[in-house]
Amino acid sequence: MRSKNMRVLLLLFGIFASRFPAVCQINAPLDPPPGPARLETLVEANVVAVHAYQILLARKEKNTDVSCWQATGLNDKELETLVTHQTALLSSAAEAKRWALGSPGSFDPTKDLRPLLTAKLSLSPRLPMNVFAAYLREKAPRFRNEEIRAIANLYQTVLEVERDGDRLQDLYAFYIALGLPVYIGQLGLPGSDADLLAGGRLLEGQACPSPFGLTAAEWQIAGRKIWNWGEKNLHVRDAQVLADELLDEPDIQALRPKMKALPAQRIAVIGHSFTMDLHWSSPSAFVPIVTAMFARENQAVQFRQFQGGGLTSSRAMKNFYKEALDWHPDTVLLVVINRTEQDFADLKTMGMGFKAAGARVVVFDDVHDPDSSDPAKLKRELEIEREAGIETANVSAILAASPDRVRFSCLDHIHMTEPYHRLMAKQWVKVILRIPLSVEKEQNKLNQ
To answer: Which residue, 233, 255, 279, sits at the end of a domain?
Structure first.
């Protein structure tokens, strides 16, 4: 019944919006009293700025709703100026908080805040951001408007996926500094994949056509991103939390004396998104988790990451090889994609180059990356690795035998979830300690 009522509410909301498209035009007071009212103006300024950016995207699309994505009288340059004001605003979180609380400080609301609040933009109730805010008000009615709309602003930003790594993270830092909630778990709402999909099904079809996807699955992925990054940025679940948990597990506890006894050394990791802490699919990735483990157990072991999403051997060779070589690592882990003959040639060059410099060079035989799953290419990689003297750590059988393997793949069916990274972190620790990897040992642990 509650789900049906929510659909009715959103439908009525959409009908109202179609008849009164400018009802949500920004009307926040320009000089509000300290407290929630000032926090609300800071949130609304960010809402306007993200909307301005997305209007620029909508102007390049053919299938958007003009009534939602219009900016009468504002040209592209003026919209870009609003985005620039947001960049400056987000860089002043500490001063903005003092201003919001009414404390003395250097924050000048006329510089970047007021231009955003007075921008001649209408925010239709049918915009995805407003539809989601209405959904949250129904689900969590005891929370204040700025708390609801701060989270909705994060959803507004993440639905357009190209700014996950910069603008979205700036917004997290800004709202956390202001003491505002940044994911729906802080509103007491559930966050399983099933819960997020159920919410997506309620939201699908309620917003106007936009320059990004709004299917139930896309709302679900947006929710998973906001939830996971929220927990990560608040340190509820991040690399350090997972490192502490793993260090307390019996099989890793047994290895802690060896970790502590390891002599001082440098370990370089050149890898794609499976190695990166920032990615949304898990609280962290196996490389930063292990780095955090050694930071607690043995700080003489230094780690340095050279990373990039979709990193191929050729890009790694161009962007990171010389810098990594100049760091003089003792061990190098390569987690890269090989698609072309040039990739294979560069993989060989890097392997031989690091080996010539005295480093141990390691790769995993298969990290279950869908982009690196072609059997012919895997066979070719193995041949190149042998020729270059690269050590292969055989982890694929361990991953395949894991009872958690059905939970490895995240919602995008590309990247990996926490269970995968926990298991990979254990294998990476063993590789560092030169302990042979074994499916049988993993199975024995499960049977104990």
So the answer is: 233
Nearest Cα neighbor of 410 from 285, 244, 269, 231 is 285
- How long is the chain? 448
pLDDT of residue 411: 95
What is the rounded average pLDDT of the residues 64-69? 91
* Cβ neighbours around 323 below 10 Å, total: 12
- Name the percent of the chain lying above pLDDT 70: 91
- Give the CB-side neighbour count of residue 89, counting CA atoms within 13 A: 31
Which residues lie below 8 Å from residue 70, measured CB to CB, with a gap of 6+? 55, 122
**In the beta sheet, which residues pair with residue 157?**
none
- pLDDT higher than threshold 90 for residue 213: yes
Task: Read off the pLDDT of residues 281-301 as tens digits, 9 standing for 90 and up.
Answer: 999 999 999 999 999 999 999
162 closest CA partner among 262, 60, 303 = 60
- Residue-number span of the structural domain to which 42 is assigned: 2-233
Tokens of 385: 């690795």
Tell me the pairing of strands 391-393 and 301-307: unpaired
Residue 171's nearest CA partner among 186, 155, 193 is 155
- According to DSSP, the residues that pair with 393 across neighbouring strands are 364
Please give the single-letter amino acid code of residue 184: I
Cα distance between residue 173 and residue 291, in whole Å: 23
Residue 364 has pLDDT above 90, yes or no: yes
Q: Is the pLDDT of residue 12 over 80?
A: no
Asked if residues 210 and 69 have their Cβ atoms less than 8 Å apart, the reply is yes
Same domain, 211 and 243: no
Does the pLDDT value for residue 141 go beyond 80?
yes
**What is residue 404's predicted lDDT score, i.e. its pLDDT?**
96
pTM: 0.88
11 and 133 share a domain?
yes
Based on the domain organization, do 368 and 279 belong to the same domain?
Answer: yes
* Helix or strand (DSSP H, E) at 38: helix 36-58
- Other CB atoms within 10 A of residue 66 CB: 10
Residues 106/185, Cβ–Cβ less than 8 Å = no
pLDDT confidence band for 23 (50 / 70 / 90): very low
Of 242, 237, 230, 195, the C-alpha closest to 216 is 195
Given 204, 233, 262, the domain boundary residue is 233
Give the per-residue pLDDT at 440.
58
CA distance 333 to 320: 13
Give the largest CA-CA distance in the chain: 71
Q: For residue 47, what are the CA distances in angstroms to 119, 133, 309?
A: 11, 12, 28
